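Thread: quick sanity check before group meeting

JM: Hey all, I'm pulling together slides for Thursday and realized we never actually wrote out the predicted structure for the chain we discussed last week. Dropping the sequence here so it's in one place. If anyone has concerns about the input, flag it before I start.
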Amino acid sequence: MELFALVASEEHVCCRYRLAAFRPALEAEGHRLHLGIVPRTWQDWSRVLIRARQADVVIVQRHLLPPWSFLGLRTAARRLVFDFDDAIFMNDSYDPRGLHNAARLRRFGATVGRVDAVVAGNAFLLDVAQRWARAIPLQVIPTCVDPRRYSIAQHDRATQQVDLVWVGSGSTLQGLKHIQTLLEQIGQHCPGVCLKLICDRFLELEHLPVKKAQWAEATEAEELASADIGISWLPEDRWSRGKCGLKILQYCAAGLPVIANPVGTQPVLVRHGLGGILARTVDDWVEGITRLSRDPALRRRMGAVNRRLVEDDYSVGNGARAWLELLHRLRRSRVA
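JM (edit): ok, ran it. Output follows.
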C-alpha cells in the first residue's frame, strides 16, 4: 500500500518515533511510506491533495486541520487515519487560560468523526476519541523506541556521586521549572547528586549542580547511558493523562532506574520497587534518590527490568506489528 503521512516535520519527535521508525518494517511487508509537511499555502495544499489521491492510506499526525483543508483532504483520501499522542483537544497544563479549549475540542471531534481509523498513544486518548468516532478501527499504538540504539548503563559508581538525568525539548523544560523548588531541595538533601539535562535549553539551579548536554539525535542515547537515574515529573491533571512517556521509555532502554510522580501513564511504565520509584512528596523523592545513589547493584537490577519492559512491550518491532495489523484491516475495508 502507498502511505502518505502529513506531519509537522520529519525531525519532529512525534514523526521520528511514531512513523519514521516503522518505515523499514512497513517496507519489508511491501508498503511504502511517504512523509509530507502540513502545508501553509493554497499552492502547497493543491500539491498535497494530488499526493493524497494517489495514496491508498493518508495519515494525519496530531494536526487539527481547519475545516476547509480537512474537507478537501477527506474528499481526496481513499482511507484517512488520524494519529495522535497528546491531549491536543485541550490547552496544556501551563496555559494561563486553563485546560479547556472549546475550539480545539470541536475541531478534534469533527476530525475523529470523519476519519476511517484512529491511532492513539495511550488508552486515555483513545477513550476520548471514542466519544466521536463512528464504527471504525480504534487502536492504541504506544510510542515506541528501538532498544538497539541504546547502550546499557554500567552502574559502576559505588558512591553518592551520581547523575540524575532528564531528556526533553526546550518546550517541555517548563515542567522542570515548575518543580524548581523540589529540585533545589533534592540538591540540599542529596549531596553529590547532579542533574544532567539533555536539551536545547537549560536551567540554572542554586543547590543542585546542572550538567548541560546539548541534545542531538546522534548522541542522546550515549548521554543517557552515561547517567545513573532517569527522572520525570508531570502536573496532576487531565492534560498529563495524555502524555505517552517517551522520556521514561528512553531511560528504560538505556537500562536506568526511573523516579517519577504517579501521574498519567507514568505508574504503568514505572513499576514501583521493580523498575524504579514512584514519588509524590519531597520526602519520597529524597528517600528514593538517596537509596538508589548508594546502591549501584539496585540501580543495575532495576535498569535490567526496565530494559526488558521496552524489549517486550514498547519496541519498534511491537509498534510496527500493530501498524501492519491496522493496515491489513483497512485494506479489507471498503474505500471511504
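AS: nice. The radius of gyration is 21 Å. The chain has a mean pLDDT of 95.
JM: adding both to the slides.
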